[in-house]
Predict the 3D structure of the following.
Amino acid sequence: MIFKSEATEEEEELTAEERRKLERKLKKERKKKEKQLMREAGISIKKVEPKKQSGSELALAYLTSWSENPDEWKFQKTRQTWLLLHMYDKEKVPDKYFTILLDYLQGLQGNARDLTVQKAEAFMKKFDDSNAEDPNLLDKCERIRQVLQLLS
């Protein structure tokens, strides 16, 4: 049996690191007991995490910000990259945003502009070779033509 005076002497002998470990351990045990009591009482605790925006939502918000609030807009390479990768997909970049994206592409510079033109030309060649009648491919092809006309 340990007396209170002996327990405090042992705590005083602990180093700072050992004291932190002991405090964390005791805190963890307290939380575990609290959760157990809550469960027994029938009260459920669920953490509600805020919904994170998807890449498409963030990229489209970035594009909207560029067009509506140019003073507050800030360049973000990841958003631009996402837009350039998905700009031909009507589901990911709806027509409403594609017209804004075409305006955005006018200011595209350097390597990003060159790569966009190269990829568009490669896509166009691929579609010309396939002779597809699929409406999705035709929409994609039309978008590619618009981008090539704008950047060439």
